[in-house]
Amino acid sequence: MSSLSGKTIVVTGVGQGIGRDIATTLISLNARVIGISRSSAPLNDLKAELNSPYFTAIQLDLSDWTNTRETLQALDIKIDGIVNNAGVAVIKPFDKLTEDDYDNTMNVNLKACFNVIQSLLPKITNGSSIVNLSSVASLKALTDHTAYCMSKAGLDALTRNLALELGPRKIRVNSVNPTVILTRMGKENWSDPKKAGPLLSRIPLNRFGEVKEVVDPVIWLLSDESSYVNGHCLPIEGGLMSA
């Protein structure tokens, strides 16, 4: 992935999990990373761990439309890629979802991605790549995931439309759509065999995904190695969609 050396990539949700590993991998490939996180403590921990002049940390609540636009538009730098990784999941039965649950899910998972891309668009160089972290939940109905499924389906629609509109600038836009990934939160949420068993039984590989198995496709989509891949939603789900 030598094509990423010297490139500047904005990564949201770098405080933990997949976003943290994406940022770390990009730095190891000599890319410059502008890492965004809502929480200061994990962001500062990552900054200390990387100890790299190629990493710039920005604490920002992406659900705040105006502050996000002002902060990102003030950046005086050309951008070669964006990874929209920040997201939330409210897992409740449909009849228990509140207006706040709905608004928070849509604001972070969909509206914030729209806002980040639109705010940075004047700074994005022709030939860049945008990768959105979607979910298999955009492609398949999941019990107690109504708001989450809706938000990720919207993100896939955003991906396809931007692939069409930004294609003339050679800006590629794709999403990756994982099933359960064993981040710290994933392990906590799916450690109960009674909960995990029914889903695992529908995955031909009979296991959940590892963080690296999402990070590597994201890095590939950011790189020139995927230069003719545009407008795709890539399931990373061990064959769940085939079962």
From TrEMBL:
Q: Name one GO molecular function term.
A: carbonyl reductase (NADPH) activity
What keyword terms does UniProt attach to this protein? NADP, Oxidoreductase
Kindly list the biological process annotations in GO that this record carries. glucose metabolic process; xylulose metabolic process
Read off the InterPro entries from this record. Answer: L-xylulose/Carbonyl_redctase (IPR051737), NAD(P)-bd_dom_sf (IPR036291), Sc_DH/Rdtase_CS (IPR020904), SDR_fam (IPR002347)
PROSITE patterns per UniProt: ADH_SHORT (PS00061)
Q: How does it assemble?
A: Homotetramer.
Family (UniProt): Belongs to the short-chain dehydrogenases/reductases (SDR) family.
What name appears for this protein in its UniProt entry?
A: L-xylulose reductase
